[in-house]
Amino acid sequence: MNNTIQLKIIDKKSVLERFSFSNSTLYLRINAGLMTPPVNLGGRRVGWPEHEVANILDAMVAGKNANYIKKLVAFLIKKRSAAWSDQ
C-alpha cells in the first residue's frame, strides 16, 4: 500500500484566494512562522504544496492559536526536508 501524498503545487494567486490574504499579509505570516514559505519552481515561479495550505487552513478554521499553527508550519517544513533525506 502506498501512503505517499499526491503532490500538487498551487500558485500564489490561489493561496491568496483561499485565505483571503493580501500579498503583504501572506509574506508577513511567512516571516512570523504562520505560513510555509513557497517552493521555488524555477525562474521566477514559486508555489505552495496544496496539502500544506490545506493543513494550515484547517487549523485556522478549527480555531487553533498562533503557537499551534507555528508548530504545524515547522512540522510541515521539516517534513519537506525529510521526504528527500532517504533518497
TrEMBL record:
What Pfam families does the record point to?
A: Phage_AlpA (PF05930)
Question: Gene3D superfamilies, alphabetically?
Answer: 1.10.238.160
Q: Which domain of life is it from?
A: Bacteria
Task: Supply the name of the protein.
Answer: AlpA family phage regulatory protein
Record the organism: Photobacterium chitinilyticum
